[in-house]
Amino acid sequence: MAKSSTNRLYNYFMATRPQFLPTIVLPIFLGSAVAWHQTGVFHFHLFAIALLAGMFVSSGVNVLNDYFDFKSGADNYNPDPLTPFAGGSRVIQQQQLSPQSIFRLGTGLLIAAALLGFYLVAQTGWPLLAIGLLGIAIGVFYTSPPFAFSYRGLGEISIGIGFGWLTVTGAYFVQTGLLFSWPVFIAGSLTALLTMSVVLVNEFPDARYDQKAGKNTLVVLMGLKGARWLFFAVLGSVFLIVWLAIQQNNLTGYHWWALLPIPLLAMIIKLFPPRELNNDEMVAVVKPTIALHSSVMALLILGFIL
After folding, report:
1. What topology is assigned to 22-305 in CATH?
2. pTM for the complete prediction?
């Protein structure tokens, strides 16, 4: 009985797709680091609550996205996901959890996030409520009707906005009570582009299955060659923006370090020729893309702290 309960808890945990947590944790650290750089003030308890709320939102959104992708058939068409970031958590397809259990889990996580969010709103101000509600709406309607952004070619930019501008700005607001500065806008923009790159690269192996389910991601709409060039442009623009922002003094001199992962971009371009890749070749592209996302984010955070 105890082993069965442990397995069920493990299945619930894996249903949240914990491998995606860095895409919410790093932006919250980055927004807080910008606030520290500009004010020299850091409210640890507010940061900790914002971090926990963000993790609940990310996990809840992932779970509900799996539920709605199951309902549409998108994940059902993909019997063997290529990477841990593609094809959903599979707990429904492998009959480890029922669709109803998944829906309840996702809803519960978002309710927990909302309760923490209301506390933060009471401590910081009403603009945070708008940021939080918009972020949750973007995440839920990524796959959920009636908008289903990922089925209409809008999924990549919506996730970029939610996990980029909104998350970074929200964390910054929690610390400062301010909604805008050029450094936080640039930090949010860079985060949006890096997040979009991770979403894009993981859409390539899913494209044939997404197309069957009517899930019109940009890779489906643009085709392999067009989406490949878009993917390169998104990654390349990250380094161009960093360079320009340093020139305009909107980033610090320490942010030159954020250009150090450029060799990863060169590696990705070399490993991603204009043809359909086999499984091993595609994994070889996905891994440095995730490494580039995490390393640039970490270096941006460090540049604001020092």
Report:
1. Farnesyl Diphosphate Synthase (1.10.600)
2. 0.93
The amino acid sitting at 53 is A
Q: Where are the domains of the chain?
A: 22-305
Q: Radius of gyration of the chain from Cα atoms?
A: 19
Distance CA 40, CA 38 (A): 6
pLDDT digit string (tens) for 45-57?
A: 999 999 999 999 9
Q: What φ, ψ does residue 164 adopt, rounded to 5°? A: -105, -90
Alpha-carbon gap, residue 19 to 51, rounded angstroms? 16
Q: Is 146 exposed, middle or buried (0-12, 13-18, 19+ CB in 10 A)?
A: exposed
**Token pair for residue 261?**
């992962």
On the question of pLDDT at 76 being above 70, the answer is no
Question: What is the DSSP secondary structure assignment for residue 254, as one 8-state letter?
Answer: G
Tell me which residue of 69, 282, 297 sits closest to 171, measured CA to CA.
Answer: 297
- Is-contact 68 204, C-beta < 8 A? no
Closest alpha carbon to 225 in 272, 187, 191: 272
